[in-house]
Amino acid sequence: MKKRTGSEKKKYSYIKKKFAVNGFYAFAVMLTALSLVATALYLGVSSAGNGGLNLGALGVSGLLMAFMSLRFAFISRREEGRDYVFSLISAAADILIIIALAAVLYIGLRA
Model pTM? Predict the structure, then answer.
């Protein structure tokens, strides 16, 4: 392994990478899932826990959308030479949505 001296120049790439196409899909589906889950949680809290089937359908739809967005995020990582910022953001948000809904389900079944 070569030692670096101060006289060697660093190499920089000035070519801007394009965004991964499936990363955009993952981000859009994540925003949809987040809005569904936020709406379900808001309506559930405002109705004091007596939401009914419509809120359950919103929550399950948001959960399924989060899983679908997570799949798009993993697929976008296969695209070589792309920028993965949207897929990383959506994957992190999807994991948080899934954990939050699992906690709500666990608390609901426990009560």
Answer: 0.80
Give pLDDT tens digits for 39-53. 998 998 898 878 888
Let me know: does 55 contact 43? Beta carbons within 8 Å.
yes
Q: Give the amino acid at 40.
A: A
Distance CA 110, CA 30 (A): 28
Residues present in the chain in total:
111
Domain residue spans of the chain = 20-110
In angstroms, the Cα distances linking 104 to 9, 32, 46, 73 are: 54, 19, 15, 24
Judge whether 37 and 59 are in contact, CB under 8 Å: yes
- CA 24, chain centre distance (Å): 11
CB contact set of 15 (below 8 Å; sequence gap of 6+): none
- Are the C-beta atoms of residues 31 and 94 closer than 8 Å to each other? no
Q: How far apart are CA 32 and CA 89, in angstroms?
A: 14
Are the CB atoms for 83 and 19 separated by under 8 Å?
A: yes
